[in-house]
Write a sequence for this structure.
């Protein structure tokens, strides 16, 4: 596979277009063409319509292999997904922290008093009162 999407043969650097190109730097739309060359037979590429119509070679107009464009696009989407996942985690942590602040300090749990405890307390109070008399 050729690296024609990243450089030209006369030493000039081709302008790198991230992802799937839609316009060339010159403002003209980009089209998809099928290569008919021996090194890249039937390989699809994006090309500036102006450069394609003029049959320009070794120029700085957009020329990018479709498979490379898709790979770039997938990498960009992967990065965006990772950034969104980090943002979601951050928002979840913020929500958890705000929930803790709204609840205020934790209250001591109420001790449940069973009927036997109540009866014992009453007996003790009555016994103490009778003892003091």
């Amino acid at each position: 596979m050729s690296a024609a999407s990243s450089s030209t043969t006369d030493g000039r650097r081709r302008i790198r277009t991230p992802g799937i190109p839609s316009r060339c730097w010159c403002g003209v739309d980009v089209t998809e063409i099928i290569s008919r060359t021996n090194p890249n037979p039937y390989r699809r590429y994006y090309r500036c319509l102006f450069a394609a119509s003029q049959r320009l070679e070794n120029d700085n107009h957009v020329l990018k292999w479709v498979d490379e464009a898709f790979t770039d696009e997938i990498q960009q989407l992967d990065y965006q997904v990772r950034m969104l996942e980090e943002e979601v985690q951050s928002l979840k942590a913020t929500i958890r922290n705000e929930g803790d602040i709204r609840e205020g300090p934790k209250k001591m749990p109420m001790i449940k008093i069973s009927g036997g405890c109540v009866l014992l307390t009453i007996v003790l109070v009555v016994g103490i009162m009778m003892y003091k008399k």
